[in-house]
Amino acid sequence: GNYQFLSSQYMSFEEKLEQFLITSLANVCQVEVGAIDLATQFSALDMGSIHIVGFVSLWKNIMGKDLSPTVFYEVQTLNDLKNYLIERKLITATDLDNIMTLATIPG
Question: d(Cα 55, Cα 83) in Å, to the nearest integer?
Fold first, then answer.
């Protein structure tokens, strides 16, 4: 479903992470948010090294954590990436709450 950042207090940790990943990937690949979902294959987005580097850089800037570009050879979809990040504790609920505060879009 489509979530507004403004309703983030009602979203679960996983929903917030999904929203963040979808929005970030759409931004990096310069496609509409609605064109991407958790099952979208990265290959279908024609993700090249420039997009991967862009996403990794965005992650580092926002999260302050390193993410290896090679992760994109291990995962095929955003759902895979979400699970990878959670399993390796590369993202916490606190991290996400901090981002959602920053990303809240006025009106």
Answer: 17
